[in-house]
Design a protein that fits this description.
- The complex is a heterodimer of chains A (404) and B (303).
- In chain A, strand 1 and strand 2 form a beta hairpin.
- Chain A is α/β, with parallel strands linked by helices and 404 residues long.
- In chain A, helix 3 (70-76) packs across helix 13, helix 4 crosses helix 9 (205-213) and helix 13 (342-356) crosses helix 14.
- Helices cover 42% and strands 18% of the residues of chain A.
- With 303 residues, chain B is of the alpha/beta class.
- Chain B has a single domain (55-299), classed as Aldolase class I (TIM Barrel, Alpha-Beta Barrel), CATH 3.20.20.
- Chain B has helices spanning 9-13, 19-27, 35-40, 69-81, 101-112, 117-130, 141-147, 149-159, 175-183, 198-207, 230-239, 255-262, 272-280, 285-299; strands at 57-63, 86-90, 134-139, 163-166, 187-189, 191-192, 212-215, 246-249, 267-270.
- In chain B, strands 5-4-3-2-1-9-8-7-6 form a 9-stranded parallel beta sheet.
- The chains are: A alpha/beta (404), B alpha/beta (303).
Chain lengths: 404, 303
């Protein structure tokens, strides 16, 4: 797992340039230090790495295919489009990569209980799955608005034996679920492992979750070299907290020829509260560096420093902060960030379904929408890889409304 | 406000007799008792307590702007009159991860009323013109960052604030912040926790001024019944690294908790119990009476 993940950042205190770090109440500092030590030991432990790799293969279904989307390529008439099929993983999204890693870590640390936040429910389902597999107690916090729009995943979590706690404070979405999970953790730190689902939060979460997700990029690299005998021209992935995108991008960061595009939720408009584009747009849309959930990063907020409400049709992208490494990659211009609207994402989901027979999650549909814009402008000998980070079953209620 | 102070504090307040002079004093905050002195006032030089009652400094937390800043102003003045030695003015934040339901809801009410950090600083200045009670701003980091630490410190000092505590700022990330607040002669209060290692306690002690705020328990703010057993041990560890007074908060709501803590630390912080009391009594004159009575009861002076 360490292989390919050893770019020099973050520094010893979890900083990616100006971003990252640890901004939490003192009560959480010792647990974060304990977690960091345990993680460092685990990643050097051959047995841990072997066990994780075995679970990724036999339980989760890795490696996932890198599939040349022939019809979509012809339909768009530009670059050759490859789909990284994370949607084929057990539980239906890339989230399981991280959950298996952290679940094994929790067990290794002797914590009998894991807690998690979830937006779309994919991380909650993956956590509940791993908890069941590893015999850990599991509590998942989920905003009540998200529970309503992702009902199916709520049922899946309960079926797996997890307790799902609805969060009714604030905007009743992912941000508030994280608040509740942090409050639970600070209260039960002795017995509880906080299984954070994205490259957000205080150090070491951004680096640890990234390391567990870089398996996506490492596989992609081998697969594209086999298929095309060269590196891709562009990588495209959606960015909520930013774990599937960083997982795809990271093993390519040192390849200047590979362009990278992170796609955020443009929602229903550019006004603060109508979108979740923290990196893509100008500062006028309310995104400025600030502290949220333990890390210093770009945050959607009002001028008084109160965190703003966000909107996206996709619950997994509906978050006012973003992983600090993405903030760094934006400011250094290594990755280009852009956004697509709810409508464009819904339409992209329809196009991919009907061209390729693959129904993507609405999160991944944002990345597909960007490819639909971009591929026709590229030459037919160019190659673009798009991460299909999850499958669309959970979004059927929303897609049904879109169809009618 | 006829009498602002009780007990030993009268000595200090006699230095300033007219409201005019008190305004002059506001321009030179050095003449007020510092936070450390306020917390030490119940100890004799020998370290022995003055009396069985009033043996610990009382720090009252209120969420500023709950339900509006006018009420908070009246409340703070009443709490000071009732014997609160230091007031922690809580700056409401949209995502208060260290707070339990009572202060979460208070923060929501304050934000709905349009409370901002700038508004809280103006409130602090108004309070300072009327009272010499110790004032500590208690905030999450982001509102302060967005104002700019430099501008925040300048305004807080001008308002007559004595110290600042940032809930989600630990020594590791606090270098620049501490330097800026020092220049403005603002005390930097840091949190210590039962989970803090000795090395962390040393860092916390090194950067703290005024007092060290010890979190009594793992968990969020909110009234509870007990005093956790490990508080005494953490206090003992903390004293190895600092001679600053120590105040304990999180979950303190009852007289016997205060009595138990007064034997081991210089100050207690009561927050959720006061916020909840004001809410239960409808944030009117009755609420002011009830909150003042609660301070008198907890402080041991009797209602």
């Amino acid at each position: 797992m360490a292989r390919g993940a050893t770019v020099s950042l973050p520094d010893a205190r979890g900083h990616f340039g100006a971003f990252g770090g640890r901004f939490v109440p003192e009560t959480l500092m010792a647990p974060l230090e304990e977690l960091e030590r345990a993680y460092r030991r685990a990643r050097r432990d051959r047995q841990f790495v072997r066990r994780l790799n075995a679970l990724l293969t036999d339980f989760a279904g890795r490696p996932t295919p890198l599939y040349l989307a022939g019809r979509l390529t012809r339909h768009l008439g530009g670059a050759r489009i490859y789909l990284k099929r994370e949607d084929l993983l057990h539980t239906g999204a890339h989230k399981i990569n991280n959950c298996l890693g952290q679940g094994l870590l929790a067990a290794r640390m002797g914590k009998p209980r894991v807690i998690a936040e979830t937006g779309a429910g994919q991380h909650g389902v993956a956590t509940a799955t791993v908890a069941a597999h590893l015999e850990l107690k599991c509590t998942v916090y989920m905003g009540e608005e998200d529970m309503a729009r992702q009902r199916l995943n709520v049922v899946r979590m309960k079926m797996l034996g997890a307790e799902v706690v609805g969060v009714s404070s604030g905007s009743r979405t992912l941000k508030d679920a994280i608040n509740e999970a942090m409050r639970d953790w600070v209260t039960n730190v002795e017995t509880t492992y906080y299984l954070l689902g994205s490259v957000c939060g205080a150090h070491p979460y951004p680096v640890m979750v990234r390391d567990f997700q870089t398996v996506i990029g490492r596989e992609t690299r081998e697969q594209i070299l086999r298929a095309e005998k060269r590196l891709p021209d562009a990588l495209v992935a959606c960015v909520g907290g930013g774990s599937n995108s960083i997982g795809l991008f990271h093993p390519f960061l040192r390849e200047p020829a590979v362009k990278m595009v992170g796609v955020e939720a443009g929602g229903r408009g550019a006004a603060l509260g109508d979108h979740a584009a923290r990196l893509a747009q100008s500062r006028r849309n309310g995104s400025r560096p600030g502290v949220l959930h333990g890390t210093f990063t770009y945050v959607l907020q009002d001028k008084h420093g109160q965190i703003a409400a966000t909107h996206s049709v996709s619950a997994g992208l509906d978050y006012p902060g973003v992983g600090p490494e993405h903030a760094y990659l934006r400011d250094t211009k290594r990755v280009q960030y852009t956004s697509v609207t709810d409508e464009e994402a819904l339409e992209a989901a329809r196009v991919l379904s009907q061209q390729e027979g693959i129904i993507p999650a609405l999160e991944a549909a944002h990345a597909v929408a960007e490819v639909i814009k971009r591929a026709p402008k590229m030459k037919p000998d160019q190659v673009v890889v798009v991460n299909i980070s999850g499958r669309g079953d959970k979004d059927m209620d929303i897609l049904a409304r879109h169809l009618s | 406000m006829a009498t602002l102070t009780i007990g030993k504090r009268r000595k200090r307040s006699t230095r300033r007799t007219s409201s005019k002079r008190s305004r002059a004093a506001h321009a030179t905050p050095k003449r007020r008792a510092g936070l450390a002195a306020r917390l030490r006032r119940y100890r004799r030089p020998s370290g022995r307590k003055l009396s069985r009652t009033q043996q610990t400094a009382f720090i009252a937390y209120v969420t500023a702007g709950d339900p509006n800043l006018r009420f908070t102003e009246q409340l703070v003045l009443r709490l000071a009159e009732a014997g609160a030695d230091v007031i922690e003015l809580g700056v409401p934040f949209s995502d208060p991860i260290a707070d339990g339901p009572v202060i979460q809801r208070a923060s929501e009410r304050a934000l709905q009323a349009g409370t901002t950090l700038a508004g809280v600083l103006k409130l602090a200045a108004r309070i300072r013109r009327k009272s010499d009670v110790g004032l500590v701003l208690f905030s999450y980091y982001n509102p302060v960052l967005q104002m700019g630490v430099e501008r925040f410190a300048q305004r807080a000092a001008a308002a007559g604030v004595d110290g600042v505590l940032i809930t989600d700022l630990t020594p590791e990330e606090a270098g620049g912040y501490v330097a800026v607040l020092r220049r403005r002669k603002l005390d930097t209060v840091f949190l210590a926790a039962p989970t803090s290692t000795n090395e962390r306690l040393r860092q916390i002690a090194r950067l703290s001024r005024g007092f060290v705020y010890l979190i009594a328990r793992r968990g969020v703010t909110g009234a509870r019944q007990d005093v956790p057993d490990d508080v005494r041990a953490v206090v003992r560890r903390l004293r190895r690294y600092t001679t600053l007074p120590v105040a304990v908060g999180f979950g303190i709501a009852h007289r016997d908790q205060v009595a138990a803590l007064s034997r081991i630390v210089e100050g207690v912080v009561v927050g959720s119990a006061l916020v909840e009391c004001c809410q239960r009594h409808g944030h009117g004159p009755e609420a002011l009476d009830a909150a003042a009575a609660l301070v008198r009861e907890l402080k041991g002076a009797g209602p």
